[in-house]
Write a structure and sequence with these properties.
heterodimer, A: alpha+beta, Alpha-Beta Plaits, Calcium-transporting ATPase, cytoplasmic transduction domain A, seven-stranded mixed sheet, 28 helices, 28 strands, about 20% strand, B: about 70 residues, about 0% strand, elongated
Chain lengths: ~800, ~70
């Protein structure tokens, strides 16, 4: 183990780069240190030591040239006028206080930046700069040079600010809180002994003040509930907002009547308190993970612009302007935006985002390339054969418009309960009214409204936001992020789980290799390691890592050659070594086509081959064993059958394993399972699962870095927390149990209230006591039990 | 007793001012990011330190120039 890098904290290995007497793991890190040091910004490392971000390669070149395109620039900028421009950029790597400090001190690095401010939860930075002195491209490149690489994607170009709706909810809470406090003050004398003797003038005055303060609450703060109730009724659904609206309206009318006729002070405090509690519940439930994106489509993955080649000249053009049979240039690490044909260059396409497979695929001139791959190596030229929207993968994404996950399908527990609830309450109210019509007609209307008032399901409506809201938070703390609280209910109903193989149950970054052939001596092994070290190809890296002999660094490699897509060759200690595909090394086709093999030729003969296998995620066996007790498990893999024998015992029956599945096959399989009446949970990781994830009832994505790209889904689970998946799924059952228990508690309160209401003697005092107590106790029960149980059940 | 009415009105006006303050705070986006400001306040204001250092640099240069002239 070497020293930790001053910049990023990573192990520097045996040969750290020393600058200013400090160790760095790579040139990139030391460059950033130098930039910051020269600009007297080295305090960056004091605020939070080793807070830097490691970026393997900072090779700018023309990567950001597209920003110079006027059309793109205009879309990116928030504002531009009189030499001053403002831009908001999403930087997923923002992670600590140092980041905030550095990004807000950008003006020190370049005086043409006027101000910059960070929104930490959203991981965005807003930069205002003098655009006649520094171009937008230079601003972006400045950020990249200090390793804060902004993510500029198509869907950000037409993104809208989501903070507006959050703000209006906060405003509503503020206004109703203000009204609640004041109205409580006015109503308080009524509840004290001797309150009835309060002079008539005061009662009237307080009543009118309450009415005035209640108006904004009823009209503005509660308007979402009326709208939702109306929408529900339009779709012939009695959702929870119907009885709430009924309660609010009755409370308001009854109280207004009492105030105007000078009969009493009314129930305004209960009314406003109810709205306040409901809004707080909504806020608690709606607090989501702002920096995570669950709605990504191909637009957030594809490049913003492409480089078009025309008569030997290149031109940058927005992706939307790309036409069929255009010839475009794809540089190293750029993404193929549309299905195309290879015209020129050595194509080495990394489809890891698409399939989860990290070994690049090589293509010959004239072969077709699917959109979504990433070119590794030198630049290539391709001809577009399909529109961006018509490309194979983008088509899969676009099928979302069929709306398979419509809200109407989901009859959630709260809506089912509220349907019965509304009917029963109306029934009780009518019976009470009829009873009093017969015995004492003067009380009939009052009894009717009293029932509706006291039965207003405030506590009932609060159980779900608070139970599911805290479940979501507890999950989030443990590395499982849900899109919204509806997912919890859907997860509980799951009976079928479908896994993707590559990248989901296997780990992309770590593969294991096994040598098959004659026994290798230590000298041979270290020579192989020395040669493999020279190549950055993932297979070479795997082999080099798997050889645990340390003295290889002093072996020198001569005549090193790397032939793309075939292999590497070189001379180590005077011995010729060739490594690579069977064709390259032996001249024959591979005899074991079902696995990935790297053949080795040394000196005068072929020694054998390294068989490269993906390694499975830690705890996979336990996870599968735990899940198979309760769920039907399936595996869908886009790969060949090489792993069938390893996986068959895990998944029980052979028939549950499906290999050679195309993205469309996966999606069809999910919809077939759904048509059999199964509730399907799909777990995947790449773009090729996108269709299946969308089609399933719940789609989960496994991600090593939750802020990096992941396909549209309902939840993201950190790959290190994969072992806990069964616990998470089981816990959703506990959450539902808590909801039901909370329902029972709130029904008990309702029952007590109804006891007074049907007798026609519901006083404002009883309402004012019962309503807050029921809400508070339900909220306390739900949040407390979820946090204790989650500690115990998800260890 | 009727002084209570005046008190209540004064009370609601004062509370109303605070409500207006809250509305202004929300509308100007102060609640959009609840984390960064808590960190930001702990940073020293380096702008002043930097500029004062630059100033001393300048004066030193000036002195040397003067010395040179003499």
């Amino acid at each position: 183990m070497g020293l930790p890098c001053i910049h990023c904290g990573e192990d520097c290995g045996n040969h750290p780069i020393i600058w200013d007497d400090k160790p760095f793991c790579c040139n990139g890190c030391s460059t950033v240190y130098q930039i910051l040091n020269q600009n007297k910004l080295s305090k960056y490392y004091d605020i939070q030591p080793m807070s830097g971000i490691k970026v393997e390669q900072v090779d700018l070149g023309d990567k950001y040239a597209y920003i110079e395109n006027e059309e793109i620039k205009e879309k990116l900028l928030d504002f531009s006028d009189g030499g001053i421009s403002k831009i908001t950029l999403f930087i997923p790597t923002i992670h600590c206080a140092s980041c905030i400090w550095l990004l807000e001190n950008l003006y020190t690095l370049n005086p043409n930046i006027i101000t910059s401010s960070v929104n930490f939860p959203k991981k965005i930075v807003s930069i205002t700069f003098k655009d006649d002195h520094i171009s937008l491209r230079q601003v972006v490149e400045l950020l990249v040079s200090i390793h804060y690489v902004p993510e500029i994607t198509l869907d950000q170009l037409d993104k809208k600010d989501s903070s507006i709706s959050e703000r209006s909810l906060l405003l509503k809470i503020g206004i109703s809180g203000f009204s609640f406090m004041n109205v409580m003050l006015y109503n308080f004398p009524e509840y004290l002994p001797g309150g009835d003797e309060l002079s008539n003038m005061f009662t009237r005055f307080f009543g009118i003040m309450s009415l005035i303060l209640a108006l904004p609450v009823v009209i503005y703060c509660a308007n979402d509930y009326y709208l939702s109730a109306y929408k529900g009724l339009k779709h012939k659904m009695v959702n929870i907002d119907v009885p709430i609206t009924l309660g609010i309206v009755t409370l308001f009318l009854q109280s207004t009547y009492e105030v105007i006729t000078a009969n009493g002070i009314g129930y305004m405090d209960s009314l406003i308190g109810l709205v306040l509690f409901l809004l707080i519940g909504k806020w608690y439930q709606g607090k989501t993970y702002q920096a995570l994106s669950f709605e990504r489509d191909y637009k957030s993955y594809f490049p913003v612009a492409v480089t078009k080649v025309m008569d030997g000249n290149t031109e940058t053009l927005p992706l939307s302007k790309l036409k069929l049979s255009d010839r475009i240039l794809i540089r190293n690490q750029e993404i193929i935006p549309a299905d195309s044909l290879l015209l020129k260059g050595d194509a080495n396409i990394d489809y890891s985002f698409v399939t989860g497979e990290s070994i690049p695929v090589s293509k010959k001139i004239g072969e077709s390339i699917f959109a979504g791959g990433r070119q590794v190596g030198s630049s290539i030229e391709i001809e577009v054969v399909k529109d961006v929207e018509q490309s194979y993968l983008t088509q899969l994404w676009n099928q979302d418009s069929s709306g398979t996950k419509s809200q109407a399908q989901l009859v959630s527990i709260i809506n089912r309960v509220s349907e019965y609830f509304t009917v029963i309450i109306l029934l009780i109210a009518t019976i009470a009214a009829v009873y009093w019509l017969i015995f004492d007609p003067s009380l009939a209307l009052f009894a009717f409204t009293s029932v509706l008032i006291i039965a207003c399901p405030c506590a009932l409506a609060l159980t779900v936001p608070f139970t599911f809201g805290s479940t979501m938070r507890q999950f989030g703390r443990r590395g499982f992020y849900l899109k919204n609280t509806d997912v919890i209910e859907k997860l509980r109903k799951i009976d079928t789980i479908i896994f993707d193989k590559t990248g989901t149950i296997t780990i992309n970054s770590t593969m294991k290799s096994q040598f098959i052939g004659s026994q290798l001596s230590n000298d041979q092994l270290s020579s192989i390691k020395a040669l493999a070290y020279n190549s950055s190809h993932p297979l070479s890296a795997t082999i080099a890592e798997s050889i645990k002999i340390s003295n290889s660094s002093n072996q020198t490699v001569k005549n090193y050659k790397e032939i793309p897509s075939l292999g590497i060759s070189g001379e180590v200690n005077g011995v010729q070594i060739n490594m690579g595909s069977s064709k390259f090394v032996t001249g024959k086709d591979d005899m074991n086509p079902n696995s990935t093999n790297v053949y080795v030729f040394m000196g005068d003969r072929v020694l054998g081959y390294f068989k490269i296998e993906n390694s499975y995620r830690k705890g996979l066996v336990d996870v599968i064993a735990a899940l198979s007790k309760k769920f039907a498990l399936f595996l869908l893999s886009g790969d060949n059958e090489a792993e069938r024998n390893n996986l068959a015992p895990l998944f029980g029956s052979e028939s549950n394993l499906k290999f050679n599945q195309s993205p469309a096959d996966k999606m069809d399989f999910v919809s077939k399972q759904k048509s059999l009446g199964n509730k399907v949970l799909m777990i995947g990781d790449g773009l090729n699962d996108a269709g299946a994830l969308m089609e399933s009832d719940v789609g989960l994505t496994i991600a090593d870095d939750i802020y990096s790209f992941s396909p549209a889904c309902d939840g993201i689970i950190e790959s290190s927390k994969f072992e806990k998946l069964p616990d998470f799924i089981n816990f959703t059952k506990t959450s539902i149990l808590i909801v039901i228990l909370s329902f029972i508690i709130s029904f008990i309160y309702n029952f007590i209230g109804l006891f007074f209401a049907v007798q026609g003697n519901l006083s404002p005092l009883i309402a004012a006591i019962l309503m807050p107590i029921s809400s508070v106790s339900v909220v306390a029960f739900a949040t407390f039990s979820i946090s204790t149980l989650s500690k115990r059940l998800i260890s | 007793m009727s002084v209570i009415i005046i008190l209540v009105i004064v009370g609601i006006v004062v509370a109303g001012l605070f409500l207006l303050g809250f509305i202004w705070a929300v509308k100007s986006g102060q609640y959009d990011d609840m984390y960064s400001p808590s960190v930001r306040i702990l940073f020293d204001n380096d702008k002043d330190i930097l500029s004062s250092e630059e100033e001393t640099d300048i004066t030193e240069n000036d002195n040397s120039e003067i010395n040179y002239k003499i």
